[in-house]
Write a structure and sequence with these properties.
CATH class of the domain at 165-325: Alpha Beta
Order of helices and strands: HEEHHEHEHEH
Distance between the termini: 191 Å
Number of strands: 5
CATH architecture of the domain at 165-325: 2-Layer Sandwich
CATH topology of the domain at 165-325: 60s Ribosomal Protein L30, Chain: A
Largest sheet: 5 strands, mixed
Structural class: alpha+beta
Number of helices: 6
C-alpha cells in the first residue's frame, strides 16, 4: 500500500526532527561522559598523588624498618658475642667457684685438724703454764729464803771482816815493840798472818825458841785468850839448804819445820790458848816467799807463820742452809 502524498511530504520532516533529536540527545550524552571522564581523571590524579605519597611514606617506613632491622641484627650479633663471652666467663667463674669450694673444703678440714691440734697444744701450754706458775711460786719462796740467808750471810761476813780487822789491830798493838824485820802482821784472804823470822825465834838448825821469841809468843797468846773464837794454825817454813848431817833428831827440812811448828804450838797452849784451837804443820822448803838465790832471800824463807782465822761456824750454818734450800 502506498502512502499518501501528505504523508510522504511529512516524512522528511519527521526524519529531520528525529535526527535533530538524536543529534541533540547524542550531544547531551557526550558531555556527561566527558565530565565523568574529567572527574575520573581528576580522581585518578588525586589517587596517583595519594598513592605516590603513600609510596614515599611506605618507602621511608621501609628504609627505617631496614635500618632498624640492620641495627637489630647488629645488636643481635653483639649480644651473641657478648653471650659467648659471658658464657666463657660463666664457665670460668663456675670452674673457679668449684676450685674455690674445693679449696675451702680442704682448708676447712685442715682448719679443723689444726684447731684440734691447737686445742691440744693449748691444753699442754696451759698445763705447762700451771706447772711453771707453781715452779715460780716455789722459786719465789726459795728466793725469799735465799735473800734472807744472803742478808744474814752478808751481815755475818761483815761481822767476820770486822772481827778480823779488830784481831789484826789487837795483835799489831800487842807486838808493836818487835822489829818489823823480825815480825810482821798482815791481812790475807780474810785471815791474820803473823810472820816471825827465824832470827827472832830460833838459832840456826835449832827447834827451841829463844827468850825473845817466847816473849812475843806470850803476848800473842794473851790476845788469843781474849779472842776465843779464833783458830790458830802454826806453819813452819825453811829455805832450801839441807839439814847438816848428824843434827840430832832431824832428817831433813820436813822434820825441822814440823818440830819448830810443834814447839811454838806448845808455847801458845802453855800460855793459855786452848789446844783444840791450835794446829801445827811443817811446810819445809816448798812454800817460799823469795827465790832462795841470796842470803837475804833465804832468810825470808826461814820463818814461822801463825795464821789466825775467826771461827766461821755461823757462816757455815748459813751456807749449809742455802745449800739445803738449793737442793
Amino acid at each position: 500500500m502506498q502512502a499518501s502524498p501528505t504523508k510522504r511530504a511529512s516524512l522528511p520532516l519527521l526524519v529531520a526532527a528525529t535526527l535533530l533529536g538524536a543529534a541533540t540527545l547524542s550531544g547531551c550524552v557526550a558531555a556527561r561522559k566527558y565530565d565523568e571522564l574529567q572527574a575520573r581523571q581528576t580522581a585518578d590524579a588525586q589517587g596517583k598523588d595519594s598513592a605516590e605519597r603513600q609510596l614515599r611514606t611506605a618507602t621511608a617506613a621501609l628504609q627505617k624498618t631496614s635500618d632498624e632491622l640492620a641495627q637489630v641484627r647488629l645488636d643481635r650479633q653483639r649480644l651473641v658475642t657478648d653471650s659467648t663471652q659471658t658464657g666463657l666467663s660463666l664457665r670460668k667463674t663456675r670452674t673457679l667457684n668449684r676450685d674455690l669450694n674445693e679449696s675451702y673444703d680442704k682448708l676447712l678440714k685442715n682448719s679443723d685438724r689444726q684447731l684440734a691440734n691447737k686445742s691440744s697444744d693449748y691444753d699442754k701450754v696451759a698445763q705447762d703454764l700451771a706447772r711453771r706458775e707453781a715452779d715460780n711460786q716455789r722459786l719465789a719462796a726459795d728466793l725469799k729464803v735465799r735473800e734472807t740467808r744472803l742478808t744474814e750471810l752478808t751481815q755475818a761476813l761483815a761481822e767476820k771482816d770486822q772481827a778480823v780487822n779488830d784481831l789484826k789491830a789487837r795483835v799489831s798493838k800487842a807486838l808493836l815493840s818487835f822489829n818489823s824485820n823480825d815480825l810482821q802482821v798482815r791481812l790475807k784472804d780474810g785471815k791474820v798472818y803473823v810472820s816471825l823470822s827465824e832470827q827472832l825465834l830460833f838459832k840456826s838448825g835449832s827447834t827451841k825458841v829463844d827468850p825473845k821469841g817466847q816473849e812475843a809468843l806470850k803476848k800473842l797468846a794473851a790476845v788469843l785468850q781474849e779472842q776465843k773464837d779464833v783458830n790458830v794454825v802454826v806453819e813452819g817454813h825453811t829455805d832450801n839448804v839441807p839439814i847438816a848431817r848428824g843434827t840430832a833428831g832431824l832428817t831433813d827440812n820436813w822434820d825441822l819445820s814440823a818440830l819448830r811448828a810443834t814447839e811454838i804450838a806448845r808455847l801458845l797452849t802453855g800460855s793459855g790458848v786452848a789446844p783444840a784451837r791450835v794446829t801445827a804443820s811443817g811446810r819445809s822448803q816448798y812454800v817460799p816467799v823469795a827465790a832462795n838465790d841470796s842470803p837475804q832471800a833465804k832468810a825470808q824463807n826461814r820463818r814461822t807463820e801463825i795464821i789466825l782465822t775467826p771461827k766461821l761456824d755461823e757462816l757455815f750454818q748459813i751456807l749449809d742452809g742455802s745449800s739445803s734450800a738449793a737442793k
